[in-house]
Amino acid sequence: xxxxxxxxxxxxxxxxxxxxxxxxxxxxxxxxxxxxxxxxxxxxxxxxxxxxxxxxxxxxxxxxxxxxxxxxxxxxxxxxxxxxxxxxxxxxxxxxxxxxxxxxxxxxxxxxxxxxxxxxxxxxxxxxxxxxxxxxxxxxxxxxxxxxxxxxxxxxxxxxxxxxxxxxxxxx
Length: 172
Fold this sequence. Notes:
Blueprint: E1 2-3, H1 8-17, E2 22-26, E3 66-70, E4 73-76, E5 84-86, H2 88-99, E6 104-105, H3 106-116, E7 119-123, E8 128-129, H4 145-150, E9 158-159
Parallel strand pairs: 2-7
Antiparallel strand pairs: 1-8, 2-5, 3-4, 4-7, 6-9
Helix pairs in contact: 2-3
């Protein structure tokens, strides 16, 4: 990730402090004026594939809407996201629920967050962008399955929470 405008994190925290109904602020690159370039559901020429996201809320099936709130903050029904400035309480609740499940997916995380907070905010422009996926970077969504298997890559799409006392760390 390449961060820019990192000082805006403070603005995001202040934004949340004044809006108790908002669960978090998404910080990934996103240009509201060119939102069609970020729509994973409708790829187009010039799409920002490194910052794609579904413009459908997977928890509700509803089309994503953006409503300008103040300055460059928008309220939305986009799914919750990591990394972002999220409410600690929302994350604790979500991970407590996920810890009871044998396996879970990214959509389970998003659904539980959405049950707690139906509104998420977005900072227009974001504060970070993903590095280009040029073949030298291993990323689950952009790397060949054969390479992922060789590296024993554990997908973040389907996962589980391992209790801290059961971690095995090996120095290689």
